[in-house]
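Customer escalation, tier 2.

The customer says the design service returned an amino acid string that "doesn't look like it belongs to this structure." They asked us to rerun it and document both sides in this ticket. The original structure tokens are below, unchanged.
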């Protein structure tokens, strides 16, 4: 590694405010992983592990830096005694097997609990169980293995309440009846969100790259869109629930809605371009790390060994009021909701660090 590359990595750590970037390598198994630990002031860093066939190491580093930083803000805003971390395994998910996953778990053990992981993109429940065989520093386990099970339910519930809170702050009522809502990405979280919306009488539009994800829905209750038609309609709410970067310098000109509020992590890319454009178009953005915290709330309760699903949902219910708080802070300080959420998250971290 050249001096310039080393300098660049440390510049990135300083820019994002990270404590550690950990490289894990096993040449024989083809295991290449990067663990980002952003902040541990509030408690151990928590965040999922994803596996992705990144086009470059730089892309993987940028992903882990952004995702782990967002986890710090998410945990802080949710009121958890937890910090922010994230891990990425570089490569085709098809190469995974139990030996591969348990070797990764050994790297987790090296951190001695400074980072706790969970399931993320391209990782399965079986992978999480296999990590548990070697490391205690994993949460989000199936119920039959001592966990709280699938965390997509509280995640979807938090996003649903976040949408209702945003609507109330615009219209004075939190009803979503007859609201035109586009859900992009109908996986575990997106599908559960749609269930809430249908029950409330929303006019739901949906798109997913995997058509099988849409098959369980009654076609009379939702409108299924083709990829080329996603931005042709005007919606009351646009809810990105797939991978990140859906709101970018290219899509922002096409998006027509009053509110953006979804479950996907890191929905905004090209922030310097996108945030002013959203303001110009009078689109209210509800940050993902504010409203998709139901999942981290669930796995946090596992980490502290409090396996009470009702407590998880009760704490997730607070997202409604937290959205109101962010919107108020944003208005009072004439800053974007994105900036307001980050500032409130940092304020809590800084307050604890000063004690």
């Amino acid at each position: 590694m050249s001096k310039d590359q080393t300098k660049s990595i440390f510049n990135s750590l300083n820019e994002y405010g990270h404590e550690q970037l950990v490289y894990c390598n096993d040449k024989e198994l083809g295991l290449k992983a990067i663990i980002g630990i952003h902040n541990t002031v509030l408690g151990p860093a928590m965040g999922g592990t994803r596996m992705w066939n990144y086009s470059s190491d730089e892309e993987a580093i940028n992903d882990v830096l952004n995702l782990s930083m967002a986890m710090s803000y998410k945990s802080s805003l949710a009121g958890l005694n937890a910090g922010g971390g994230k891990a990425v395994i570089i490569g085709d998910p098809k190469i995974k097997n139990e030996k591969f996953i348990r070797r990764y778990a050994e790297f987790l053990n090296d951190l001695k609990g400074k980072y706790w992981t969970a399931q993320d993109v391209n990782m399965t429940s079986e992978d999480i169980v296999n990590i548990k065989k070697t490391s205690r520093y994993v949460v989000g386990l199936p119920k039959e293995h001592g966990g709280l099970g699938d965390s997509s339910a509280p995640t979807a519930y938090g996003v649903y309440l976040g949408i209702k809170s945003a609507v109330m702050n615009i219209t004075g009522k939190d009803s979503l009846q007859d609201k035109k809502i586009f859900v992009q990405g109908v996986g575990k979280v997106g599908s559960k969100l749609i269930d809430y919306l249908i029950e409330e009488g929303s006019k739901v539009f949906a798109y997913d790259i995997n058509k099988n994800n849409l098959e369980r829905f009654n076609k009379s209750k939702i409108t299924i869109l083709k990829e080329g038609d996603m931005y042709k309609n005007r919606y009351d709410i646009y809810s990105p629930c797939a991978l990140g970067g859906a709101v970018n310098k290219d899509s922002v000109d096409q998006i027509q809605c009053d509110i953006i509020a979804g479950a996907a992590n890191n929905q905004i890319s090209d922030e310097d371009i996108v945030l002013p454009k959203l303001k110009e178009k009078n689109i209210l953005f509800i940050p993902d790390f504010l409203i998709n915290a139901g999942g981290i709330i669930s796995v946090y309760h596992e980490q502290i060994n409090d396996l009470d699903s009702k407590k998880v949902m009760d704490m997730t219910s607070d997202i409604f009021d937290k959205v109101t708080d962010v919107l108020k802070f944003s208005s009072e300080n004439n800053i974007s909701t994105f900036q307001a959420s980050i500032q409130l998250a940092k304020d809590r971290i800084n307050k604890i660090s000063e004690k």
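Tier 2 assessment: The sequence is consistent with the input. The first helix runs from residue 3 to 16. The CA atoms of residues 20 and 37 lie 5 Å apart. Sent an explanation to the customer and offered a walkthrough call.
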